[in-house]
Amino acid sequence: MTKSSYLRKKHLGGAINQRGNDYEISFACLKIMRLISQFQLHLSSITISSQGNGYVDDFWVQNQVPGEPTETCYQLKTSQKLSWGERINRGTLSFDFHKQKDNLTKKGIKFRLELVVSERKIFKLMRNTLPKTLNKICTIFHFPWNGTINNQVLYCSSFRKAAQELCALPDTDKLQALVNIFVGAWVSSGKRDVSLKSLFDKVKSIGGLAYLRSPVPLTLSLQVMEILDAIPNFRYQIFHGYLVYFYGVTDSGSIPHMINSTEFRNIENEIIAKRPVTFADLETIIL
Predict the structure, then answer these.
(1) Which long-range contacts (CB under 8 A, 24 or more apart) does 237-246 make?
(2) Residue 182 sits in the same domain as residue 64
(3) pLDDT tens, position by position, 198-216
C-alpha cells in the first residue's frame, strides 16, 4: 500500500469513528432529555451508561421506577448497509441481540432491546426483517444524524421536540444552547453508571438554569405589572418563567433572564425607579 493510500484509509477510518462517536453523544442527549421530561420526580431511580459490557452495549438505561423496564439496551448504527445476519454466527446483529436477550431472560430482568439507525432506508429494512424471535422485546428506531449537535436541533424533529420539552423559550438559539450544556454535562460525566439526578444537577450548575423551564409558577411584582399595564399597545405574558412581550403588531421579544434571577430583579428595580410610560422608554431598560 502506498503512503498516500495508507493516509487516505487512516483519515477515512478516523472520520468514521468520529461520526459514530458524535452520533452516540447526540442519541444519549436525546434519551437523557426525554427521561428527564418523563420522570422528573424519579431521577435518582435512573442510571445511564455508554459502552456497557453486554452484547447490545452502545447505550444502557437502568430504570427502577415501578412499571418500567428495568434495563433498556441500545445498539446504534450509522452504516449505509446493514443486516441482521444469522443468529448462530458470532459478530452478527442477530447473534448479539439474541445473546443479550438470553442473558437478561436468565436473570429474570424485565428489559427492552433497541436498534437505532441513522438511515431511513436501513430503518425500513431492519424493521421489515426483524427476526420473529426478537419481535416481542426489540424495537427499531430511526434517529437521523445531521452532522452536528446544532443541526440536530434544526433538522431532527424528535431531537428538537425533546429540547423544547425542557427549554423555557422556543427560540432555536436557546434550544441549541441548552442542548450543548447537556452535551457538556454528559461528556464530562465519564458516561458510565451516571445517576440521572446527578447529571441534571450538573446541567443546572454549568448554565442550564438560564434556559430550563421553571418548576414553579413565577410572577412579576405588583408595582411592575401596574407600570407595564399602563404602556400603550404593550402586552406581555409569563412563559415558563420568562417575560415575553409584544408591542403593537410588529415588535416582540423576551427578557433573557428568568423572573426569579438576580438579573431580572435588577431590571424590575430599574423599571420601578424610572417608571417608563412608553415602549421607547421601556426598551432602554430591558434591551
Answers:
(1) 239/168, 239/169, 240/167, 240/168, 240/169, 240/213, 240/214, 241/168, 241/213, 241/214, 242/168, 242/169, 244/169, 245/286
(2) yes
(3) 999 999 999 998 889 877 6
- pTM, to two decimals: 0.77
Is beta strand 71-77 parallel, antiparallel or unpaired with respect to 59-63? antiparallel
pLDDT band at residue 18 under the 50/70/90 scheme: low
Chain centroid offset of residue 118 CA: 16
Q: Which of 177, 210, 243 is the last residue of a domain?
A: 210
Give the start-end residues of each E strand in 31-83.
46-50, 59-63, 71-77
Q: C-alpha grid cell for residue 20?
A: 459514530
Same domain, yes or no, for 56 and 93?
yes
Per-residue pLDDT reduced to its tens digit, 55-79: 999 999 999 999 999 999 999 999 9
Q: What share of the chain is helix, strand, coil (3-state, %, to 5)?
A: 50, 15, 35
Last residue of a domain, one of 190, 210, 230: 210
Query: What is residue 236's three-state secondary structure?
Result: strand
User: How many domains does the chain fold into?
Assistant: 2
For residues 120 and 262, membership in a common domain is answered with no
Residues 6+ apart with CB under 8 A from 233: 247, 248, 279
Sign of the alpha-carbon torsion through 132, 97, 137, 186? negative
> Is 267 among the domain residues?
yes
Structural domain boundaries, residue 206 = 3-210
Residue 127 CB coordination number (10 Å): 15
For the record, the C-alpha cell of 150 comes out as 446544532
Residue pair 166/39 in contact (Cβ under 8 Å)? The answer is no
